[in-house]
Amino acid sequence: MQKYCLLTRMVRLLRYAVLCTALSLLPLAALAASVPLRFAWLSDTHVGSDTGEQDLNAAVNDINSLTGLSFVVISGDVTEYGSREQFKRAKQSLDKLKLPYHSKVVWASGSGQQFGLGSFILANGLILSMNDSGLLRLIEALPQKYTLLAQAQVLKGRESWAPLALAGGRLIVRDLTRMVCLEVGRP
User: Helices 84-94 & 52-65, crossing angle to 10 degrees?
Assistant: First the structure.
């Protein structure tokens, strides 16, 4: 009988503790419900395309006219080709935002290293990148700077936009007319 009474008391105390905890959290729940997290999301602005900069400026004006937003998320292709000038123009437009956003160009390849719509892949701290014309580049992936380690023309470059595939030290690249398997691992 004593075990049953003790067990009953423990269950009642546990219920009381759960109820007190739930009641103590009610003000937080009410606060969370009254202050929703609202933000704007800009994606694929493509500054440098025909209308990219105009579209971004219009979006910035629209966002600035809204109330109740906390911040802006920027994702996707900010520029059309990734040139320093295009990033500079995008930043000038984004700096007109009245809300916080975070965007920092850590390094850029420079105007002599165009990539177009080509693809890239990261492997062992290196970037393998192919531009539209079939030029494959090996780049050191350090946050401090862009360092081109090697490059080779591996395709004739008829729209070399396909994703790169890497496995077992072999890299598969292709364009519209040809597919090539390259040995890229250590010999």
Answer: 20
Q: Tell me: the pLDDT tens digits for 25-58?
A: 555 444 444 455 677 888 889 999 999 999 999 9
Q: Quote the CA–CA distance of 109 and 147 in Å, as a whole number.
A: 8
| Domain segments of the chain as ranges | 113-187
How far CA 77 is from CA of 43, 46, 59, 86, 163, in Å, comes to: 7, 6, 15, 11, 16
Query: What pLDDT was estimated at residue 66?
Result: 92
Domain at 113-187: CATH architecture:
Beta Barrel (2.40)
At 120-170, the pLDDT tens digits run 888 887 889 888 889 999 988 777 777 889 999 999 877 888 889 998 889
| CA pair distance 28, 182, nearest whole angstrom | 58
